[in-house]
Design a protein that fits this description.
337 residues; alpha/beta; Rossmann fold; 7% strand; globular
Length: 337
């Protein structure tokens, strides 16, 4: 099976080895009660997780007409369980994610999951729970999850999906089998984008803005390109103390904070790598060179660490305006260090 550009495939090409690992565990009846799927944002984790869910729910356990080992655990899409899943009505499946307008997964959602896992199965498969954005469980929710992990229900699998495994409680991680979902290399990403778009391009600007993440690169458009350039100009104005941090924060506080952080972290990563080589004159790097000349190396490392800390709290209930002000202040502090 070729997964390159194939939307019907259960996984992406760069996930092949992990899919084979999952299939082997299922075939040998060595599935754990809890799986932790972790990997970078915008690299196809949700598609992989959904394919694992569908495989666990599928009633067609043995497919004699599919000798390929990695295909033996692909859902058949024809059995009763698969059809009810496709209709969003499978009684043996529960998906937990952020409720609209909420920043965290609550204890009530986890309590509902614990009740769900005690129910009898409707089909002769597994009862499956998928917790998306698992790192965004609040403290009570995380502690509530531990009960089900410590005393797992028979024939059940809990799947945690996260891009920030470091935020999860160590006791949760220790009770899960961890599968590290990879980020594709640059050539794999370019080939995938070429298949998806039909363009014979190297997608240089898209990959830079998306930090090499394929699904994010696919969404890059002229508006995002202009927005990122505008943010860089505002950061330079802060470093040169030409603009008020409060005024600039008011301009950006309604935007996707995670995206803003990723762009800044990407710039710093570039600047750190450029400390010992000339900065090439492309893609607006003249302005990045200007940043490089105004912030010392040790301050860049401190700034990098501080922005990573901001990533860990980006989805908490902190006031958005205050969050952006604090984020922008880090640049001014880095200049003065």
């Amino acid at each position: 099976m070729s997964q390159l550009g194939n939307t019907a495939s259960p996984y992406y090409l760069w996930q092949t080895k992990i899919w084979q690992q999952f299939c082997l565990a299922k075939k040998s009846n060595h599935l754990p009660h809890a799986l932790l799927l972790q990997g970078a944002e915008n690299t196809g984790k949700l598609k992989f997780a959904n394919s694992v869910v569908k495989s666990l729910l599928c009633e067609a356990q043995d497919k004699q007409d599919q000798p390929d080992e990695q295909d033996n655990c692909v859902a058949c899409h024809q059995c009763r369980s698969c059809k009810t899943y496709a209709a969003n009505s499978n009684p043996d499946y529960l998906h937990i994610d952020l409720i609209e307008d909420k920043q965290q997964i609550s204890i009530d959602q986890i309590r509902a999951m614990n009740v769900f896992l005690t129910l009898s199965r409707s089909f002769n498969t597994y009862r499956v729970v998928l917790i998306s954005n698992a790192e965004r469980m609040n403290k009570n929710a995380a502690n509530g999850l531990l009960k089900s992990l410590e005393e797992p229900a028979d024939n059940s699998v809990i799947i945690l999906l996260t891009s920030q495994a470091s935020v999860l409680l160590p006791t949760i991680k220790s009770r899960c089998q961890i599968l590290h979902l990879p980020t594709p290399n640059k050539q794999q990403t370019i080939e995938w984008l070429q298949h998806k778009t039909g363009k014979n391009s190297q997608f240089q600007q898209e990959l830079e803005i998306a930090q090499g993440k394929p699904l994010a690169a696919l969404e890059v458009d002229d508006e995002l390109i202009a927005m990122r350039s505008d943010l860089l100009s505002d950061v330079l104005n802060i470093v040169h103390e030409k603009s008020s941090i409060i005024d600039i924060a008011k301009k950006w506080h309604k935007q996707d904070r995670n995206r803003l952080l990723d762009w800044q972290i990407g710039w710093i990563t570039y600047l750190l790598s450029a400390q010992y080589k000339a900065v090439p004159d492309d893609q607006g790097t003249e302005r990045l060179a200007e940043l490089k000349n105004n912030i010392l190396l040790h301050s860049l490392w401190d700034l990098y660490d501080q922005l990573l800390k901001q990533k860990k709290i980006v989805h908490t209930s902190v006031n958005p305006l205050i969050f952006i002000e604090n984020m922008l202040t880090l640049w001014l502090q880095a200049k003065h260090c």
